């Protein structure tokens, strides 16, 4: 169960691997019961999607859905359960062309705040142990998401570095990604480029100063600090349900579309270092007076 602590040797080996590669896998991190509970909660959320009030915008970090990313629904999602739909699930008239349970690309971004099961897993002693092992001093959970990768229409996640979206200066984002189903190349498993956590963050996703728009802003980076990126070196992480994948905020990662008949449900949340001032340009702005969820403070 999540309350039991991890073996110190496992933490040490995981952290060593992570420091070298920018990613690491801990198989069987969640028990079968925990996976079942999180899946049940996820299924309940899908059943609670109210199609009549949803803005019917799709989620995409690719070009096609860009115009929707900055909308109010997205920016207001930081502390609640909001639904972002697969591109292939909505037609030109904004109507669903598949069952609503199969239409959702992701749910975010406050599951760790409003759902007890996701809160318990995210703020567990085991996660705190890992965050401490990774050297975090005051980790704050910034956002959490369920990504569903629906059968046949599950969208790709283009290559990215999380610190582009979850920016601090210096960058400090760390991702905790949980497989809630077996993930394979055919259902669009996570892939990462080992060692690419040495690649600096070259742009950041910001909220426009007016209205509800977002855009990318370049960051000053010395060209000579950018190592060569060899896209043929991506490593697929084919992992079983219950596995935890740790993702460095600078490491390049991606996943392919799911063209198979199997879904690929995962839960992921990201922490930043609370020691650094929270940046006012970030897309995710906690409402005044509300703090980001703290895991611990050293
Ligand atoms: O699950 C995926 O395919 C991508 C997840 C991701 O980018 C993340 O957790 O940072
Ligand atoms: Fe990511």
Automatic annotation (TrEMBL):
Record carries keyword NAD: no
Organism: Furculomyces boomerangus
Metal-binding in keyword set: yes
Gene3D superfamilies (alphabetical): q2cbj1_9rhob like domain
SUPFAM superfamilies (UniProt xref): Clavaminate synthase-like (SSF51197)
Keywords: Iron, Metal-binding, Oxidoreductase
Family stated for the protein in its record: Belongs to the PhyH family.
GO molecular function, one term: metal ion binding
Annotated Fe2OG dioxygenase domain residues: 141-273
Pfam families, A to Z: PhyH
Database matches in PANTHER family: PHYTANOYL-COA DIOXYGENASE DOMAIN CONTAINING 1, PHYTANOYL-COA DIOXYGENASE DOMAIN-CONTAINING PROTEIN 1
Needed co-factor(s): Fe cation
InterPro entries the record matches: Oxoglu/Fe-dep_dioxygenase_dom, Phytyl_CoA_dOase-like
Designated name of the protein: Fe2OG dioxygenase domain-containing protein
Domain of life of the native organism: Eukaryota
């Amino acid at each position: 169960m999540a309350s039991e602590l991890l073996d110190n040797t496992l933490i040490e080996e995981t952290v060593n691997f992570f420091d070298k590669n920018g990613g690491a896998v801990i198989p069987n991190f969640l028990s079968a019961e925990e996976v079942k509970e999180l899946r049940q909660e996820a299924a309940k959320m899908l059943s609670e999607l109210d199609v009549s009030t949803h803005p019917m915008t799709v989620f995409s970090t690719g070009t096609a859905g860009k115009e929707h990313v900055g909308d109010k629904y997205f920016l207001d999602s930081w502390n609640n359960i909001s639904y972002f739909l697969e591109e292939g699930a909505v037609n030109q008239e904004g109507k669903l062309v598949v069952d609503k349970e199969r239409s959702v690309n992701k749910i975010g971004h406050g599951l760790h705040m409003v759902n007890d099961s996701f809160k318990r897993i995210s703020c567990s002693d085991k996660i705190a142990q890992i965050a401490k092992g990774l050297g975090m001093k005051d980790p704050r959970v910034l956002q959490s998401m369920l990504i569903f990768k629906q059968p046949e229409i599950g969208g790709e996640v283009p290559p990215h570095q999380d610190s582009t979206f979850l920016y601090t200066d210096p960058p400090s984002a760390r991702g905790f990604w949980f497989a809630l189903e077996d993930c394979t190349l055919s259902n669009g498993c996570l892939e990462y480029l080992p060692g690419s956590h040495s690649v600096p963050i070259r742009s950041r996703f910001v909220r426009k100063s007016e209205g509800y728009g977002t855009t990318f802003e370049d960051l000053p980076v010395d060209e000579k600090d950018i190592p060569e990126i060899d896209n043929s070196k991506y490593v697929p992480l084919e992992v079983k349900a219950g596995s935890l994948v740790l993702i460095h905020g600078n490491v390049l990662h991606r996943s392919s579309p799911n063209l198979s008949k199997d879904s690929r449900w995962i839960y992921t949340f990201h922490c930043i270092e609370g020691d650094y001032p929270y940046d006012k340009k970030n897309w995710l702005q906690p409402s005044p007076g509300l703090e980001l969820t703290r895991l611990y403070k050293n």
